[in-house]
Amino acid sequence: MIGLVDEHPPRTDVPVADESYFGTADVTDASVEQAGEDDRAARLQAKKARHVAASANLALGLEMTAKLLEPTDQQVRAGATCSATCSAT
């Protein structure tokens, strides 16, 4: 069987089909463009939220380290839980 394949060179007169996932889709469709814009906006919003959370956590940690504020009991318990969980893995 392999010998037969080697004997026949590939045909060049037949157009090659585009096998990419969206090869036959009209990517300029308005709904596709809107979905892309929505996805980019959601990713940007999530990135901003992570930045705000990280900044708040860093500031809180620095203030606690500098003894500028005393943590609440809930924050102390959360820190102890996180330390125990994080060191266990």
Summarize the structure.
With 89 residues, this protein is mostly helical. The chain is built from 3 helices and no strands. The model has no long low-confidence stretch (mean pLDDT 75).
How large is the count of helical segments? 3
What is the overall silhouette? elongated
Specify Rg, calculated over alpha carbons. Answer: 29 Å
Beta-strand share of residues: under 5%
- Which structural class do the helices and strands define? mainly alpha
Separation of termini? 54 Å
Helix content: 55-70%
The pLDDT mean sits at 75
**Quaternary state of the chains:** single chain
Low-pLDDT segments: none
Strand count, sense and barrel status of the largest sheet are: none
Overview of the molecule:
By secondary structure, the protein is an all-alpha fold. The chain has a domain at 31-68. Helix content is 65%, strand content 0%. The chain contains 3 helices and no strands. It has helices at 2-7, 30-65, 73-88. The radius of gyration is 29 Å and the shape is elongated. It starts with a helix and ends with a helix. The mean pLDDT is 75.
Descriptive terms for the model:
mainly alpha, 89 residues, single chain, 3 helices, 0% strand
Topology readout:
Elements (H helix, E strand, L loop, with lengths): L1 H6 L22 H36 L7 H16 L1
